[in-house]
Amino acid sequence: MVGGTAVFVSLVAPAGRDPVPAADSAPAFPSVNYAVAVDESASLTPADLRAEKAAAARIALGDVSSSSHVTVFGFAAAESDDQRAVDPVCPRTPLDAAGRETIGDCVGKLRGREEGEGTGTDFPSAIRQGVHDLTRGTDASEPRVLFLLTDGRMDVADSPKYGDPAHREAEGERQLTEALKDAAAQNVQIWPLGFGADPDQEQLDRIAAGGYRKGCVELPSATPKAHKVSGAKDIGTTLEKIFAAAHCLRHEEGPAPKRPPATLEIGISPLATVGSIVVDKGDPAVEITYVDPSGDEVPTSGTYKKSRFELAGGNGAVEALKIVDPLPGTWKVRAEAPEGHRSLPVAVSVLWQGELRGAITMDPPSPQAGEKVTVTMRLQTREGYEIKDPRDYAGLRVRSELTGDGFDPLALDLADDGEGADPGASDGSFTGTATIPRDADGELKVSATLTASGLSADTRSESGEVAPGQLPVRAVLDLRAANAHPGTEVAGNLDVSNTTDVPHTLRLSVADVKDGLLSVEPAEITLGPGESGTRKVTVAVAPAGAFGDRLGDGLRLAGTVTVVDTTDDDRTLVRSPLSVHVTPEPGIGERYWWAFASGAVLIALAAAAVAARRRLRRRRRDPSGLVLRLVSEDGTVLNEHTAGRGNGKQWYEFAVAEAHRSPRIERRAHGPYAVQRRREGGAVLRKQGGSRTPVPTHGQVPLTDTLSLALGEETRTTRRRPQTATAGSGSGSGSPTGGAGGGTRGGYDDNPYL
């Protein structure tokens, strides 16, 4: 990047050759120089300051580039000769493994100003400090970004350096203007974040607009702008979003924060080449473990499978696990904490960068002048897998043009809207059409560039040639999208004709996919003079081992089958997109379902009589309609709960919630208690551990140390009557959870018997 402007990487194939296949090279992570200015003025609450510290640590630890540098400083105002407006806390620090580990400690030095320490808000000094830190001894080709966190508006009324009291406000405005001009001249972007009740939105907008305006890519999302949040709880998440926009990262927010012990889930895109799972633990005593989408707990350093891991901040309130080549899918973050350290919620998010590749085709590849061609740009991961989820390429810009001899460049409109030539909306395939100009003669080239924030730009092109007339050898491939398992084949037909009096050799290959995943047979076809007909073509899918952990529940391969006439100067006859949905080999039950089905019919006939007898016995044991009553030691009925249908063996399972406060019965699968009817009348109570006790129709039996269980029978009155005790008690037939005696999940953590 130069001066904050994206340099588009061009991956263009030489004329007459297949496009460069999806690479398996190491990903590159653009670096950024950034500074974080944190308001320390007196208006800050302890919660505000804690949120500012966590936010600064989150973006520093979450940065995916080891060559980025960060500076952190606090600011307020200097209101006497022995005070200073700026408090440096983190000098310019590289975010390599060692630097990331120190960030949490130095960010912890941020503090709130007390009366007599200079409690105003000196924006000009903060901006000048940021510009100084970002330009001194830094590489001018790397983006320079200043994040300004504040809970107020500029206040220099008590700062002597701004002149006499009557003119300080005006002088402050003048110096702010000058500081912003200098920031713009030094290519320093400014992204303000205001929080609390008092930030001046107009002033924050002015600050954002006054700095350097070009972002990491030429997209609106990367242009500096001011943000405002209402409270401290939103500072960290919002600053991460701002940081992602400024750094051209993607940001994924996790689920609502939870108190430990808890498991939080977060998704990582298949486009991600590097990502950081950022965990705001709240309390340093919280311990975090990370589980990948295949269910394996991963290490926090070193290499595991094909991914590389590096943890930073593990001893602080914020930690981040950086992952190079992460396994895509849903990751689980498990939070555990000792007693006394479970009061603060744990939040999780992901910052990531990725590579989006494209595979371009022009059909036909050698058109005649005046003929219409269809151009398709299909989105892929860098390994050649298709991208189907539109969220992975949100904000994508596709630019395409057709160039050639004898005519001016034509802009092409490629769309993924399912209209016109595009086969389906939001399927990751952008399609458009163009008519080859009548004046076209000679070389043709169609190209397309993909640009999206957080994804490295990719330019693809295909070269062709205007056909002088009817081609001497023609080929049409019928190889449609297919489903396949690893190690199997996809079959198609190639219709060919040779109108010449000499043999022609055609070469077949698969491009635009990682080597070894797909291959085509035969690799060559020889056509005799005047020969025409149909040849069988098969595409072989690699064995399961070639996909590693990426196969999961299935993935899509996006290749391009190419047919070249080697006898006619390697003229391309066919460039046909190929989509193969690869799913794991089915289990034995899926493969031999017909045999199991036949056997099941015979077994079903033989078991019909037995089932009928069992149904009769089950009906006799069905607990539906039993009214379960919780009775206190003094005989008071504390709660009534109407049982619904039992499980397969007609046991109605339940638990006692809030046994020592407001006891109630709740239906609970695998609960510690269960009842079923007895043929003799009454019921049987089963307790955890297997013990069983008869419960007479008009009696009661001990349930806990202080509670007993008594029985009743549902009547029309009890069916209409709402349940007793507290809201959330087990419900009868009118339960909002559906089904008699459905109950709720409330009180689960308070049940001392679970």
What does this structure look like?
This is Lipoprotein. InterPro entries: VWF_A (IPR002035), vWFA_dom_sf (IPR036465). It comes from Streptomyces caelestis. Keywords: Lipoprotein, Membrane, Transmembrane, Transmembrane helix. It is a single chain. The chain is of the alpha+beta class. Among the domains are: 221 residues, von Willebrand factor, type A domain (Rossmann fold); 116 residues, Sandwich (Immunoglobulin-like); 86 residues, no CATH class. Helix content is 16%, strand content 36%. It contains 9 helices and 40 strands. Strands 7, 9, 11, 12, 13, 15, 18, 19, 21 and 22 form a 10-stranded mixed β-sheet that branches. Strands 3-2-1-4-5-6 form a 6-stranded mixed β-sheet, with helices on both faces. Strand 30 and strand 31 form a beta hairpin. Helix 1 runs antiparallel to helix 2 and helix 1 packs parallel to helix 6. The longest helix is centred in the C-terminal third of the chain and has 29 residues. The two termini are 58 Å apart. 43% of the residues are buried.
Radius of gyration from the alpha-carbon trace, in angstroms: 34 Å
Bulk shape: flat
CATH class of the domain at 28-248: Alpha Beta
What portion of residues is helical?
Answer: 10-25%
What is the number of beta strands? 40
Distance between the termini: 58 Å
Main sheet properties: 10 strands, mixed
In percent, how much strand structure appears in the residues? 35-45%
Average pLDDT: 83
Q: Structural class, from helix and strand content?
A: alpha+beta
What is the level-2 CATH architecture name of the domain at 28-248?
Answer: 3-Layer(aba) Sandwich
Low-confidence stretches: 1-27, 717-754
CATH superfamily of the domain at 28-248: von Willebrand factor, type A domain
CATH topology of the domain at 28-248: Rossmann fold
Give the helix tally: 9
